[in-house]
Amino acid sequence: MPKGLLLTLALLCSAGGIAWLALAMEVHWQQVRASAAGPDRRTAIGLRVLGGAALAVSFGVCLLADHVTMAVLVWVMSLAASALLVAQVLAWRPRWLAWLTTPWAERQSH
Amino acid sequence: MRRIQIVSRVAAGVLGGWSFTWGFVVLGIALLLAAGMPYADAQTLLYLVAFLVYLVVFCWSFAAASTARVWLVLFGGGAAMTGLGWWMTRLPAT
Amino acid sequence: MFPTFRLSMTWLHTWFGLVLGYVLIVVFFFGSLSVFDREIDRWAIPETRFAPQPMSSFDTMLAPIFARMTPEADELQAAAKRVRGPLPATLVPMNWGAYTTHRDPVLSLYAEYAVPNNPDDPDDHVHGHVTIDPRNGRLLPDDRLKIGSEFFYPMHYGLNLTWKDLGYWIVGFAALVMLAALVSGVVIHRRIFRELFTFRPRKHVQRSTLDLHNLTGVVALPFHFMFALTGLTVFASIYLPVSETLLKPQAMAAAMADAKAKGLPFKPAGVQAPLASVDAMVVEAKRRWAARGMPGEVGYLYVNHVGDRNSYVTLYRAGSDRVTLVGQPIHFEGTSGRVLLEEPPPSAVAGVNDFLTGLHLQHFEHWLLRWFYVFGGLSGCLCIATGFIFFVEKRKRQHAKAGTGGARWADAVAVATVTGMLVATLAILVANRLLPAEMAQRGDWEKASFWGAWVIAAVHALWRSAPVRDARLSPAWAEQCGAIAALAFAAVALNWITTGDHLVRTLGERFWPVAGLDLALLVAGAIAAMAAVALRRRAGVAVAETGAAAPDDAETANA
């Protein structure tokens, strides 16, 4: 796979992983779902697992794209960039992240 | 806080921190040389840790209860380590 | 001095952050620009707008150019004062060097010439330097200022202040304070994990500014910490020169033993001998690097003891495929071309140091990572700028009531530093396009435009700062944002007019150095224009609401 495609995939996985980890936090779940209650315990765990898995996949893809020393740096910086991006989306357009919670849509009351 | 107190504490942290770090580097290199490490490696290793040491003592110098203690530990410690390290390098090589 | 640890760290963070923040934001900003310093050079020197080239053939192209090189005129003048008797008409070259990277279209050639008859220094020497187009060996005009690599980059590590290394010391101290600010910031941030993604832009100014300050500081904390620390270790021998003072005997003994063990001739023999084929040495070096699993191009070529029987050639590998600085030098005997020494892999300590240095200096070829570095640096600038804004906003109401002027001056200096720095940066680019091409001392006039514009911006900031005394917004912010937008768009337009390399052409040819800078200028101009409009609107509203004080929640009150 061409390097550009691999890195794009890695970035998307980083962004998604960070977003899921953010959604496991009460205040951000409430922002995104416009609900009064935060995620219940099982949902929060599920979000953290999914988020962690996405970050692990991102790291693996980075290793495929580059020499290991560069892959580590690229991955660490992608986490920072993703965190900044997710924070901005949560601040200005939180509903844009609502689709990331669809696996838990029916389980929650809202 | 009186102005002279602030100036004294800042001087102790900045200048004392630098002298403490200097002593740490000199003593560290001397110890590593005595342990058989090549000079270039000893210098490189101490340079890698030197600024972490400076960071710690710099922060401590503002958290410490008394300015006098900061002066004593940083300048005194720096001088002591410098002296000890220099003395070690003057010993005949074993 | 302080009743609790947290209070001592708050004081440290606030006051050292404020004073050194003015230096740090300059270091971070020009550091970000330096990631693409050579690309900025291409924009500033249109004659060099062509694709990067590998190192040219030494035998056919470089050797004749080296033979014709002469020392710099100003260095010769200074040397004439140091020697006993007149200087000889031609000086003997001692060594030659050629340097290129994967981003350089042009090749830099250096030479050192021995200066005889200096009673104080038997090793006295002067330098020569030319830049060539490696495609045809043509010498490029050397009086063009490389705005990226020879102005913005030195600004980053030394503020272009070379008197007694003062700039290095100021930047070094600022880096130490950066580390302390990061540590103290973590100590005083009460809910660092819970508020990791928190940014509330619609709340009052103090809250949203502090949120953004925390966000940009925390998410890039490893980046900020590692860059400040590695910056210090790169220049450690300046800040802690133990090997030139207290430990000089040990350092010299080790250096001489090292040279002896390597078997490389320390001094010339004094007997003339011709140089063997360097091109053949390059072929052998590349073969050996490939055999060790690290194929590569020559990054740096060095001929020692030119024209002498003891000459030797050192070839260093260009390190573009990994973070660690890998020189992997191989030394060849000059007269015969046989390998004298293939340097062994570095020791563990040296390997760690090479990795950390390589992390900071970025010789590697990875465009995404380079852009990440730029955004990391800019987020550092944003962290510092929001720090200033928070400091002023928090205090200006108290100072307005008490009639003291502290907040006003802090705000004026903040404008002078943050927007003033951007005005100066754009001014030098505009001057670069406006000044006549064949002007004498053109580089000096470009630098004067930079500093002059910054002085004007600083004066403007001070002059317009009076409203802060009454707890209102200084109009200087909006006005300088407007100037930034105008200068940025002007720079792009002038590039088009003076060189014909407009965006449609450079994007079509995929000539990224110029296209990238033009696009970045347009984006910067657009952001500055939007900021100017938003600030004007806020200033209008603030006048109406001067009575209502912003509610101080617990964190903004104690920060």
Present the secondary structure layout.
The complex is a heterotrimer of chains A (110), B (94) and C (559).
Chain A: H1 3-23, H2 26-33, H3 41-65, H4 68-92
Helix pairs in contact in A: 1-3, 1-4, 3-4
Chain B: H1 3-34, H2 39-63, H3 67-90
Chain C: H1 5-34, H2 37-44, H3 58-68, H4 73-80, E1 93-99, E2 107-114, E3 125-133, E4 138-139, H5 148-158, H6 166-188, H7 205-219, H8 221-234, H9 236-239, H10 248-262, H11 278-291, E5 298-304, E6 312-317, E7 330-333, E8 339-342, H12 348-361, H13 367-402, H14 406-434, H15 442-463, H16 466-469, H17 476-499, H18 503-508, H19 512-544, H20 554-558
Antiparallel strand pairs in C: 1-2, 1-5, 2-3, 3-4, 5-6, 6-7, 7-8
Helix pairs in contact in C: 1-5, 1-6, 1-13, 1-14, 2-5, 2-19, 6-8, 7-13, 8-12, 13-14, 14-15, 14-17, 17-19
Tally of DSSP helical segments of chain A: 4
Tell me the domain tally of chain A. Answer: 1
Tally of extended strands of chain A? 0
* Total count of helical runs of at least 4 residues of chain B: 3
Overview of this protein structure:
The complex is a heterotrimer of chains A (110), B (94) and C (559). Chain A has one domain (3-99). In chain A, helix 1 (3-23) crosses helix 4 and helix 3 packs across helix 4 (68-92). Chain A has helices at residues 3-23, 26-33, 41-65, 68-92. With 110 residues, chain A is mainly alpha-helical. Chain B is mostly helical. The N and C termini of chain B lie far apart (54 Å). The mean pLDDT of chain B is 94. Chain C is α+β, with helices and mostly antiparallel strands and 559 residues long. Among the domains of chain C are: 52-149 and 247-347, no CATH class; 405-559, no CATH class. Chain C is built from 20 helices and 8 strands. Chain C has an 8-stranded antiparallel sheet with strand order 4-3-2-1-5-6-7-8. In chain C, a hairpin with a 7-residue loop joins strand 1 (93-99) and strand 2 (107-114). In chain C, helix 1 (5-34) runs antiparallel to helix 5 (148-158), helix 1 crosses helix 6 (166-188) and helix 13 packs antiparallel against helix 14. In chain C, 42% of the residues are buried. Chains in contact: A-C, B-C. At the A-C interface, helix 4 of A face helix 7 and helix 13 of C.
